[in-house]
Every structure is written in structure tokens, then in C-alpha cells.
Amino acid sequence: MTTALEKVQLKESLPDDEVCSCSEKTPMHLRYSFSEFPFYCSECNGQILPSSLTITEELAQQIVDWSSVYSSLFRLWLDSGEYEAFAEAALKDPKGQINSLGLQIAARIRNQRPTFYWWFKDEEVEIPTDCPLCHQKLREHNRYPVRFCDACDISL
Predict the structure, then answer these.
(1) 31 in a structural domain
(2) Residue 82 lies in a domain
(3) For residue 108, is it within any domain?
(4) Which one-letter DSSP state was computed for residue 30?
(5) Contacts by residues 120-126 (CB-CB < 8 Å, ≥ 24 positions apart)
(6) Proportion of the chain above pLDDT 70, given as a percent
(7) Which of 29, 50, 56, 60 is most buried, with most CB under 10 Å away?
(8) Contact, 125 vs 79, CB < 8 A?
(9) How many domains does the chain have?
(10) Phi, psi at residue 58, to the nearest 5°?
């Protein structure tokens, strides 16, 4: 039987230019992106490797659970079928199960490296200027079209 820790390991090695080589103090995002380990650097956008963080079996199981549900909702949204509106509403729901779990995971790992939870947004829609949780103005990234809410620890 495969453990949750085994499930979060990358199945294939990545090219060097797709792996984060920034400082361990550089913030990262918990972001679904079709990967077993959904953490990405907020500066270089490179994949964070599981070996660079201390992940317990319990935390790994939370990551697997979050990723599985998020993946299902995201694929329903991508399908643009009859469940698109349902999936989009679930992915954007500030009090919804998927976002609550994602925020919990980000909070649990934040003591190792600053971590933001990547909030769902339609890439074809302009990035909001206000936080979807506290409605305060978002801070802009200095190089990329990414915004942050430091109060809520989310990015989009």
C-alpha cells in the first residue's frame, strides 16, 4: 500500500530550470498545477521539491486529499460542461471546504517557509485588486502579474 508521503513525491524528475533554486526564505504558493507536490516559488515560479520541506504522513495525507478534490473541481471547471458553474463557485467559495483545507495546509507549512494559498481565478479574467476574503487592497508582485494579501496569506 502506498503511503501519503510516497504519493506527494514527484514521479518524474524535473529539468533544472523548472525547479526552484531560490533561498529557503523565499515565499511559496500552495497551488494546484497537475503535480504530485503542489508547492511553487513565488519568485521564480519553480517547483518546490518535497525533499526541501519536512512533511509528516498526516500533512502529506492532507495535501493528497486537497489535491484530489481540487483536481476534480478544476477539471469540471475546465470541461466547460454542465458542472462548470458549480465547480467555479466551489473553487471561489471563501468558506468552502476546498479553500478551508488549502488555507490550513498553507498555515501548517508556513513555519518552514513563508507560504501563500493560491486562490482560484479564471486566467482570462483580470486579477482582482481586492482580497476575496478580507476585501483589502492586494499587494502586487514586483515582476509578475500576481497579487498577495499578507493579512489572509493568499495569492492570486
Answers:
(1) yes
(2) yes
(3) yes
(4) E
(5) 120/74, 120/88, 120/91, 120/92, 120/156, 121/156, 122/88
(6) 100
(7) 29
(8) no
(9) 1
(10) -65, -45
